[in-house]
From TrEMBL, chain A:
Main location: membrane
Membrane topology: Multi-pass membrane protein
Localization of this protein: Cell membrane; Membrane
Protein name: NADH-quinone oxidoreductase subunit H
GO terms classed as biological process: aerobic respiration
An annotated Gene Ontology molecular function: NADH dehydrogenase activity
Length: 302, 179
């Protein structure tokens, strides 16, 4: 850490994450109800319903592992968000922020697998293994996209990466890396086209047996992950808090909301992709494309 | 005690205790994640000595490694997917003797070895220094090996994904033939 951040920044971060997660859920609901604004009330109704719902239990469940998985989801989302600059500085200004973000987001695989394993029930188990397969498929191009941004900035620190885009956004001169990042952002939150781990074809997959507060924590974690995935695109590719007139924190917020809206919208426009087909696409198209992009950026930087 | 030494002892006890738990629990899943907890604890200790790149990389790699292990667990276990309770130790009489012997040997090594004195100070940017010391003189070899590993991985995937359950070239059996 370079300098200590004021005490209110972690609180502001948590507040912003919760509000944006709620906004994402509400927007998703509105899109799902043919743009009827009554969808805006769905998230609070769902929260109330889950809070009073009785827990459903399965015989010989491994409750410890399941709870660890469910609670891990929001925890790793917040830990990943800690290195993202809120305006000028992040809550934790790690020198290797990009790697930290990557590590926290890989922990999501563990969380999903544990949540799927815990109930000792077949559909969640299948969902858990789908999550691992999908993780292995998206992770390599995703890492290359992150490294390309870090290479362009010559630093693994998120603030430095954002600061290196004063002249030109990385999204403009490394479009392939940005596109790969957006695909993997969907996969990080197992959202939309990448939602097979919680697919309706296996009765909700990982979350099939979750009910009551467990399900509430899981869903909160999932929406928070979606927000964090969208928010990370801002310092990595969209110039961070840079912009005219408005203060940096407001630019960061506006850009995050824009990316988040695109991700939520994608769920309603794109079909879910099977993991083995996505592996094909990811390893045979996205990895070579990301490598060529990295080569191009490497040559420019040299 | 400083905050750092408190953190060190907490992480050290956590790592050792979850290392023991690997052999005590009766489920493959619990053993896997106990081992992961232990290794993540070690990774976090690296953060305390300012080797943040190595520390975060250990956490990243160990989580991925344990998830890959979960895949293999379901593929190769005789006990179906490790779903049944099972004992995590083999050779329960010989193993403690061997383990105790190795432990005593290592402890003796700690006290008998002539430890070198520290020379020089830590570099300003440990990540940069680490990269140079690993890659510096052997850059070409590392690059070639890296590309070879990646090519192997991609060609393995090409061979594997072609024969998906629903994608093969073989015509599917008709329902009446299928029984």
């Amino acid at each position: 850490m370079r300098e200590t951040t004021p005490l209110w920044t972690p609180i502001a971060l948590l507040g912003a994450l919760l509000v944006l997660a709620w906004a994402a859920a509400a927007f998703d609901s509105v899109l799902g109800t043919a743009l009827r604004l009554s969808g805006l009330g769905d998230p609070p109704r769902e929260v109330a319903r889950l809070l009073v719902q009785q827990r459903r239990r399965t015989p010989s469940a491994d409750t410890l592992l399941m709870r660890a998985g469910v609670c891990g989801l929001p925890v790793v989302a917040v830990l990943a968000a800690a290195v993202l600059p809120l305006g000028d500085r992040p809550v934790a200004d790690l020198a290797v922020g990009v790697v930290w973000f990557n590590a926290m987001e890989v922990c999501v695989w563990g969380s999903l697998w544990l949540t799927g394993w815990g109930p000792d029930s077949v559909y969640p188990l299948i969902g858990g293994y789908r999550a691992v397969a999908q993780g292995l498929a998206y992770e390599l191009p995703h890492m290359f996209a992150l490294i390309t941004a870090a290479l362009g900035a010559g630093s693994l620190n998120m603030s430095d990466v954002a600061g290196a885009q004063r002249g030109l956004w990385f999204a403009v001169w490394m479009p392939v890396a940005f596109a790969v990042y957006l695909v993997s952002a969907l996969a990080m939150a197992f959202w939309g086209p990448m939602s097979r781990p919680v697919g309706s074809d296996i009765a909700g997959g990982v979350r099939a047996e979750l009910s009551g507060p467990d399900r509430l924590v899981f869903q909160t974690g999932r929406y928070t992950l979606l927000v964090v995935a969208a928010a990370a695109a801002v310092p990595l590719f969209l110039g961070g808090g840079g912009g005219p007139v408005l203060p940096p924190w407001l630019w960061t917020l506006l850009k995050t909301v824009a990316v988040l809206a695109v991700l939520v919208w994608a769920r309603h426009r794109l079909p879910a992709v099977r993991m083995d087909r996505f592996t094909w696409l990811s390893w045979l198209v996205l990895i070579p494309a990301a490598l060529l992009q990295m080569l191009a950026v490497g040559i420019v930087v040299l | 005690m400083t905050l750092q030494s408190v953190a060190f002892w907490v992480l050290a006890v956590l790592s050792a205790a979850s290392g023991v738990a690997v052999f005590v629990v009766d489920s493959m899943a619990r053993a896997t994640f106990a081992l992961l907890t232990s290794l993540v604890g070690v990774g976090l200790v690296f953060l305390l000595i300012d080797l943040s790149y190595l520390g975060v990389l250990i956490v990243l790699m160990m989580v991925m490694e344990m998830m890959v292990m979960a895949v293999f667990m379901i593929m190769y276990m005789m006990n179906p997917a490790g779903l049944m309770p099972m004992k995590m130790v083999h050779n329960s009489r010989g193993a403690p003797l061997i383990a105790a012997g190795v432990f005593l040997l290592l402890v003796a090594g700690v006290f008998l070895a002539p430890w070198p004195r520290r020379r020089g100070g830590p570099p300003a940017d440990p990540t940069h220094a680490l990269g140079l010391s690993i890659m510096g003189p052997k850059m070409l070899v590392m690059m070639v090996v890296g590309v070879a590993i990646l090519a192997t991985m991609i060609s393995t995937t090409v061979l594997a994904t072609h024969r998906g359950r629903y994608d093969g070239d073989r015509p599917r059996p008709r329902p009446e033939e299928g029984r």
